[in-house]
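Ticket #4471: structure output looks truncated?

Reporter: J.K.
Steps to reproduce: submitted the chain below (189 residues) through the standard prediction queue, then opened the result file.
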Amino acid sequence: MTNVYSAVIFAGGKSSRMGKDKSLLPFATYATLSEFQQERLKPWFKKVYISAKENKFDFACECIEDKTPVSSPLIGLLSILESIEEDEVFVLSVDAPFVDTGVIEKILKSNDSSYDAIVAKSPSGIQPLCGLYKKSILPLIYHQIEDNSHKLQALLELARTQYVTFKDDLPFTNLNHPHEYEKAINSLF
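Returned output as attached by the reporter:
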């Protein structure tokens, strides 16, 4: 895979189901899940950013802070696309540590200039925080914010979106609950 794209790790969620900030939980040999994600994405992308409400990280990273106090993935995406110089960026949720190079390559190879977003779709549904987003989607984001509609899925339904189909849900496993986190930690050994 060539390093022609930049990536952003979404790490600004409330983590209400986990009970603590999951982006700061230890993972593998790293002090935090955020650092784990950043380090494993670095070889695949020319630049890796982390999106959050504030820079809460104790490792070297380039943090894109949300532009408004509202918490939603849509606000995170708005902040990202308004902050970066690139016209397109790969996004990945911090709590999806099993998305591998095969998944990422398939999404990036599906890039077509006629789409605003190229997003993964698995048997369990659309994976809006695993995909490539382009600045061409910004007018729709502004419209969604004006309508107080913060769901990424609603945005993708309005946009010119290409869905890249995967046959397995495993790579898209999210670590939302303590038992999912423990299972993921145990699978590493």
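Triage note (M.O.): checked the attachment and the full token line is present. The chain has one domain: 6-187.
Status: closed, working as intended.
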